[in-house]
Structure formats: C-alpha cells, structure tokens
C-alpha cells in the first residue's frame, strides 16, 4: 500500500488542522468527510477534494476504501465511533480526551486489543518540538529523578460555550478540555508513573460571563449564553507511586490579569520549563545556569505539532506500529481526569490500589 485513504469524522474547527496535515503528507489521501451537519461536511469535502461525503459515520466506516480515520467529533461520541471504526478494520486517530469516562476508555482499549488495529490518541503536544527536545534531554538523565511538576493553563475569559460548556457532550470544562493536554505533557515527560492518589477541586463561581463586552472571544458554532454546565476552574494534586507529584490547574475563566500557560518539571539534577518557552535549569562548577536551546519552536507551535502528529499516525497506520500515544495512555489520562472530578465531588482524596 503506497498511500492510505483517510476519512475525517467531525468537520469542525480541529478537523482543519488534521486535513491540512493530511494534505501535506504524500502518503495520505483525503478520501471521505463525515459530519452530522451536511453543509459542513460538504464544505470541507469541496475544500480538500474528498471524493465522498457522509452524514452518518456508520456509512463512512462501511466504505471499504477508507483505511484510517480521524475522529474529530464532540467528546461524547469518541468512544462509540472509535470502537466502531476499529471493529470495521480501520486505523484510528482520536482527538483528546480519548473518551468521557474510564469505563468507555477501557472498552476502547479492549477493542484495540481484540482487533489489533492502531489507535493513536491526539495528545498533540507530545509532538511539539519543545516537548520532543525536553524528552530527549530527560531520557539522557539531564534532570535526574523528576519528583515535582507543575502545569497551568489559565484563561481569563475563554469559555467557548456551545458543546464545550454542555457537560453531557463534553464530559467537563477546562480540566477535560485544556488540563488534559497539560497533565499528559507532564506525565509523559515524567516517564508515565503510575497514579497513587488524587485530590481535586472544581469551582463554578463566574459562569460563562456572557455579559462581558468590548473584548473578542472565541465562541463555538453552537454558542448560547444560556448553556453552561461545566466548571470555571479545576485544580488538583496528583501523586504517583514513585513518590513524585504533579500540581495542575486549568480555567475557562478567572479574575486573572492575563491568560497563562506554564509547564515545569523539577528533578534532582536539573529542571525544565517546557512552556511558555523551553529552558533548562541546572548548575555547574558551583554556579546556577539557565540554558536556552537554539531550536525553531521553543513554545507550542500548533501547525508544526499537528503535522508531526498526523505524519506519525500515517506511518503507524501503514506499518501497524504502536503509536507514541497509545490507547493505554488515553485510559491512564482518563483515570486522572475522572479522578479529579470524583475527588472534587466527594471532597475526598481518591486513592488507587
Ligand atoms: N488537539 C487539540 O489541541 C484540540 C483543539 C480543539 C479541539 N480538540 C478536540 O477535537 C474535538 C472537536 O472539537 P472542535 O473544536 O473541532 O469542535 P466543533 O464543534 O468545531 O466540531 C465538531 C464537529 O463534530 C460534529 N459531530 C459531533 N458529533 C458527531 C457525530 N456523532 N457524527 C458526525 N459528526 C459529529 C459536529 O457537527 C461538529 O461539526 C473535541 O474532542 C475537542 O476536544 C482538540
């Protein structure tokens, strides 16, 4: 097989990053687009030259010419569509979060194990240059033993509304939408330690702040001022079996001076700031050092990271190789996200066996 035919399911905002990257990959052909919104599916198919347009993902999956799919729908259909795709013999790239619940994640994992097909979870930050460089340095022992990490993705005014703000379709707010990236980034760089316990908090103090004027903000296509059933802010302390801990917070809105992104890891031999800009911290000859690597993207570069993510998926789909963001990582991350929500709801620390 020299090139593979791709079907993209869900033709909204993020599908464009998938489609642009597939377009630039010589081994991928954009063959089919599906969206329950027929106009949206048709529009994207015309734009990217897809031969087939579907409004029902089951019909796309029944098409034997489709070899691999990107699942870019709302979070509530990720599990259902991924499982159906695997069982239909397709290779799958599913957007984050992999599912809405741990139970769904385990069912996806079972389908991967039973079919032997590829499933890559869209942890796009793992493919960013700053993260791949940090990973190489960490694997060479530059940080030593990593015992603490801190991640923040705080939006001052950034509840996208629509399905993002509707818990039944999204599974939650900024934690599952933004925190998922930051938790995964740190956990991946920490060497994927096993979770020991989670203490989480969620707050819904400010709502969607639909009344705020005189400032632009991104709004989902189905935005409505009346829909908001998700948290404004979540934070958590996640402790791992190896004794390391990760503190994370994520907000859709907060009385903060500005938006903030930060991902920092500390080891007994050195530290690394991955975001907002890659920088290593160390000491030499009794002197503290801040070391700035000379690389093209010291901060997260959306398009570049998506291209590398899609190129990796196409390679895995063609060869059957296990992706660097496999299904079991998707399940572990769901365990952490759902653990934060469960702890926030019960007011207790969740301790895992
Ligand atoms: N990796 C990232 O950085 C990143 C960024 C944004 C969004 N995402 C993820 O991508 C997914 C989509 O987000 P978006 O911003 O593109 O949302 P969106 O609302 O812009 O697009 C989603 C599309 O999916 C369609 N859809 C929903 N359920 C469907 C179904 N069962 N069958 C067919 N079509 C269906 C909707 O009609 C819509 O057009 C979400 O899971 C989100 O978390 C990832």
Biggest beta-sheet profile: 9 strands, mixed
**Terminal-residue CA separation:** 45 Å
Number of domains: 2
- Which secondary-structure class do the elements indicate? alpha/beta
CATH architecture group name of the largest domain: 2-Layer Sandwich
Task: Look at the structure and give the CATH class of the largest domain.
Answer: Alpha Beta
Task: Assess the beta-strand content as a share of residues.
Answer: 15-25%
Query: What is CATH's topology name of the largest domain?
Result: Dihydrodipicolinate Reductase, domain 2
Q: Which stretches of 5+ consecutive residues score pLDDT under 50?
A: none
CATH homology superfamily of the largest domain: Dihydrodipicolinate Reductase, domain 2
**Percentage of residues assigned to helices:** 25-40%
Q: What is the averaged pLDDT score?
A: 97
Radius of gyration, in angstroms, nearest whole number: 20 Å
> What is the overall number of helices?
10
Cofactors, ions, other ligands: nicotinamide-adenine-dinucleotide
Shape: globular
What order do the strands of the largest sheet run in, or round the barrel if closed?
14-13-12-11-7-10-9-8-15
């Amino acid at each position: 097989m020299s090139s593979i035919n791709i079907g993209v399911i869900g033709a909204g905002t993020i599908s464009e990053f998938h489609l642009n990257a597939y377009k630039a990959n010589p081994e991928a052909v954009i063959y089919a687009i599906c969206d329950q919104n027929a106009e949206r599916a048709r529009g994207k198919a015309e734009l990217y030259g897809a031969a087939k347009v579907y409004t029902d993902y089951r019909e796309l999956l029944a098409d034997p010419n489709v070899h691999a799919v990107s699942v870019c729908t709302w979070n509530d259909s990720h599990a259902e569509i991924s499982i159906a795709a695997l069982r239909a013999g397709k290779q799958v790239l599913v957007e984050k979060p992999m599912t809405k619940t741990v139970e769904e994640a385990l069912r996806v994992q079972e389908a991967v194990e039973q079919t032997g097909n590829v499933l890559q979870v869209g942890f796009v930050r793992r493919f960013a240059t700053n993260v791949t460089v940090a990973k190489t340095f960490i694997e060479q022992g530059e940080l030593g033993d990593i015992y603490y990490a801190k991640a923040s993705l705080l939006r001052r005014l950034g509840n996208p509304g629509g399905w993002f703000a509707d818990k039944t379709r999204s599974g939650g707010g900024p934690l599952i939408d933004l925190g998922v990236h930051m938790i995964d980034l740190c956990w991946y760089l920490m060497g994927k330690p096993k979770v020991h316990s989670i203490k989480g908090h969620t707050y819904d103090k400010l709502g969607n702040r639909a009344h705020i004027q005189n400032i632009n903000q991104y709004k989902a296509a189905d935005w409505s001022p009346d829909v908001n059933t998700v948290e404004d802010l979540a934070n958590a302390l996640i402790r791992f079996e190896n004794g390391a801990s990760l503190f994370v917070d994520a907000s859709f809105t907060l009385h903060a001076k500005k938006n903030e992104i930060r991902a920092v890891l500390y080891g007994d031999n050195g530290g690394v700031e991955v975001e907002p800009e890659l920088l290593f911290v160390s000491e030499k000859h009794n002197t503290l050092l801040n070391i700035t690597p000379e690389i093209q993207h010291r901060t997260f570069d959306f398009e570049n990271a998506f291209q590398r993510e899609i190129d990796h998926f196409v390679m895995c789909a063609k060869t059957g190789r296990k992706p660097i963001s496999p299904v079991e990582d998707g399940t572990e991350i769901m365990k952490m996200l759902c653990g934060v929500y469960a702890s926030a709801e019960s007011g207790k620390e969740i301790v895992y066996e």
